[in-house]
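Thread: Modeling a multi-component assembly for a lab meeting

Hi all, long-time lurker, first post. My supervisor asked me to bring a structural picture of a complex we are working on to next week's group meeting, and I have zero experience with this. I have the sequence lines for every component (505 residues in total). Could someone generate the structure of the whole assembly? Inputs are pasted exactly as I received them:
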Amino acid sequence: MFRNIGEIVLLFWRVLRALPHAWRQRQKVFDQFFEIGNASLLMVCVLSFFIGAVFALQTGPALAQHSLSSAVGGVVGFAIARELAPIMMAILIAGRIGSAMAAEIGSMRVYQEIDALRTMNINPIDYLVLPRVLAMVVALPMLVIFAILVGWFGGAVVANYNQQLEIPFAAFFADMKDFVVLKDVGNGVFKSFCFAIIIGVVSCHQGLTTIGGPRGIGRSVTKAVVNSIVLIVIFDYLITLLLSIFLK
Amino acid sequence: MNAANNSASGVGLVVRGLRKSFEDQEVLKGVDFAVQPGEIFVIMGPSGSGKSVLLKHLIALETPNAGEILINSEPVSAPETAAKYRMALVFQSGALLNSLTVGENVGLYLTEHRLKTPEEIQQIVVDKLAAVGLKDVVDKMPADLSGGMKKRVAIARALVIEPQLILYDEPTSELDPLSSVVVGEEILRLNQRTGVTSVVVTHDRDLAFGVADRMAVMGDGKILIIGTPDEVNNCKDPEVQSFLHADFKRESKNKKL
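Re: Modeling a multi-component assembly
Sure thing. I ran the full set together rather than chain by chain. Output:
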């Protein structure tokens, strides 16, 4: 386990060192960015709408019982912006895109395509890892902003049409405006930026260390998703702790 | 690297005391040989004798536990050597990038190192594919090609580098006899045209005796014999003889039945 962590940190360091070559790889970054967006946008939309909806459905009646229905917009807005959207989208992208990255790079490793790159003096970090990590750190925060907006809308729909609540759209968003500030959205976007680095680096690392044919590729995909999710949850706590200390 | 601007000319290769272990299994047990500039050197041996591992060491894809590999007296593992000498490996599987078209695969080296304009690269790709007898496959994906065509595309990709040392890993495996002859002729033609030093790892006896200037037979991680094809063929070593003259005999099957 410690060896794995060391290798992941080393790969992250190599990606940072490769950053000056990012402009040369811009076409690949764009291709990956398109791939992430194209593959995820609909799922992000559906998932975030229902996260907002179910959160409003769970919290709304409970708050209403204590005559706090005016706080529903704020609670839903705050929770989605700071926590639910970044972590749920990160888990979704780890499963959908991280697994694909690990499988693609793993298959390239098993079928000697990465060795072929090396024999041509093409650095696999520049050619394969850097574009994927960069596309991820651009795409995930954008998807999270989109997810926050859709999630808020999902919460507003439930608050409006649920018979126990019946909070009009305008009142829901006015209430949200009192609670949620731009810093809360920034907080969620910053988290998603960190999660994107985790997903990109962990998935590429698993791909690059794949051994043992198709079975090995399957193992790498599973490990990429599981390790990404575990690290996302751990880092979610650490980032929240740090932000609560430094951004009171 | 200004590879594409220079014409290829062979380099000398020296391997001394090469040893390699994977966990507790010793795959190479002290390998020594030298290849002269412009020579076609064939390494033969049964499966599992360490040929492919040796080949990976020659192009610095593996690091030895002991010993050294020198190209024109410079260690192959040094970054300066990789930058100074152009080396190419034709993989057993071809190792074409499946996400790229055939044309993009062949031109990858030039594209990534920005050695030519896109128009020049396009022309070089067409020329190199024509040199290996492939036309009209530029826009195809590797998955659409047969095994023999993939190997020839891999050779075309190696040609683009204009290598001074070219290594072939089982170039005729999985090929029909006709395709094997085409690949063998391609190895000879390339060597004669450019003077490139070639190291061919194979267990195809026809190919080996057809192209080799000199050859070595490996067994159990060691070189059993080095010499001209005639010298190797006349070698009395029983292990070499059993490998060179192993043949399926119909009578032995009939006897069992």
